[in-house]
TrEMBL record:
It is found in: Cytoplasm. This is Tyrosine--tRNA ligase. A motif ('HIGH' region) lies at residues 45-54. The lineage of its organism: Bacteria, Pseudomonadati, Pseudomonadota, Alphaproteobacteria, Rhodobacterales. A motif ('KMSKS' region) lies at residues 237-241.
Length: 416
């Protein structure tokens, strides 16, 4: 695409690799040039923390605010009760109101690290779609909103079609989700003058629905913008690791483990990730991403420090780097390593090394732990671990023991 933007925000989106598609590049660019644009991204409260897979769109909201516009984080207190079927092969488990509220509170802690909330013109707004969805009258909603939706068109959306093509059940409850999301955009435009919905490219159909509905009901011009679905250079979905999701809440994943995730970025992804997840100038990101051999490791440390500083603060980033140097370069035991603390009762007469590898999160199962040992991938206090039947007692664990899986994953085990 050869469009040359006038507005700073669209220029940033294009230059740093955030932009997948837009419903009207020129119209949106002109809106950004004309004044403050309120724009939103919706987040369903399906877990008590956001994860790295959400981070690209959080950075989009941060750049929006840095460019002088107004971010809206819309929490799906209402839509979470239904569940988004987009590109899922099964129905989401339905959550109760208390769990949804607890999840929203956990997610809000993350947004507060990246956005400035308040009452000023470009301060972010935190909203909850339960505000308008919880009080809907079903018959009024069908008559006033439902009549604008074509079932034929809804069936043509890729997210729905993929479920039906595989002959997987799509409940009427889930089918309603796209109508509710479209209604969110209408209400945000009506109540808050919101002009733009953003989201991952899998949300394109839902975004277009909201634009179409708002034009029909309010006759207002609004826009949609999507970000690319991010995969790593080896084809894996961004944000997943051997140990599970890379959570953004510090109580669910330590700042050291978060730092280590970015330090372990593949060479081919380093430049791209610097542009998407840090605020370093694009030229510097390109320079660092082009380094080769051992020099690229310095770029990965910069990436890890920059991303960790944004979320956990500069002190946490510095502590994580110091721990990594202690562990990797000097073969020591870092203060910041993930630590498993056991009681004497947990250990009893002894506890197997296989159990410790699983409990510390270094292996997903006993079978995986045994395979790790058999393939010479495990170490205890930096010495190769060869005996899968090894038992450790309270005396052995009186001082912390360092366990390692491969070269990059470590944990301490101690008695509390």
């Amino acid at each position: 695409m050869t469009y040359h933007p006038k507005s700073e925000f669209i220029a940033v989106m294009m230059e740093r690799g955030f932009l997948a598609d837009c419903t009207d590049y020129q119209g949106l660019d002109e809106a950004f040039s004309a004044g403050v644009v309120p724009a939103y991204i919706g987040y369903d409260a399906t877990a008590k923390s956001l994860h790295v897979g959400h981070l690209m769109n959080i950075m989009v909201l941060r750049w929006l605010q840095k460019c002088g516009h107004k971010p809206i984080t819309l929490m799906g207190g209402g839509t979470t009760k239904v569940g988004d079927p987009s590109f899922r092969s099964d129905e989401r488990p339905l959550l109760g109101p208390e769990q949804i509220e607890a999840n929203i509170q956990g997610m809000q802690q993350v947004f507060a690290k990246y956005l400035q909330y308040g009452d000023a013109k470009t301060d972010a707004l935190m909203l909850n779609n339960a505000e308008w969805l919880d009080t809907l009258n079903y018959l009024d909603f069908l008559r006033d909103i439902g009549r604008h939706f074509s079932v034929n068109r809804m069936l043509s959306f890729e997210s729905v079609k993929s479920r039906l093509d595989r002959e997987q059940s799509l409940s009427f409850l889930e089918f309603n989700y796209m109508i509710l999301q479209a209604y969110d955009f209408l209400e945000l435009n009506r109540r808050y003058g919101c002009l733009l919905q953003m989201g991952g490219s899998d949300q394109w159909g839902n975004i277009v629905n909201g634009i179409d509905l708002t034009r029909r009901v309010l006759d207002n011009e609004i826009y949609g913008l999507t970000t690319p679905l991010l995969t790593t250079s080896d084809g894996r979905k961004m944000g997943k690791s051997q140990g599970g999701a890379i959570w953004l809440n510090g109580d669910m994943l330590s700042s050291y483990e978060f730092w280590q995730f970015w330090r372990n970025t593949t060479d081919a992804d380093t430049g791209k990730f610097l542009k998407l997840f840090t605020e370093l100038p694009v030229d510097e990101c390109n320079r660092l991403g082009a380094l080769e051999g051992s020099e690229i490791n310095a770029a990965k440390i910069i990436l890890a420090n920059e991303v960790t500083t944004l979320l956990h603060g500069a002190d946490a980033a510095a502590a994580a780097e110091a721990t990594a140097r202690e562990v990797f370069e000097k073969g020591g035991v870092g203060d910041d390593l993930p630590t498993l603390t056991l009681s004497a009762a947990d250990i009893g007469d002894g506890i197997s090394i296989v159990q410790l590898l699983v409990k510390s999160g270094l292996a997903g199962s006993g079978k995986e732990a045994k395979r790790l040992i058999a393939e010479n991938g495990a170490k205890i206090d930096d010495a190769p671990l060869t005996d899968a039947g090894l038992m450790l007692n309270a005396e052995t664990l009186a001082s912390p023991v360092k366990l390692s899986a491969g070269k990059k994953r470590h944990a301490l085990v101690q008695i509390g």
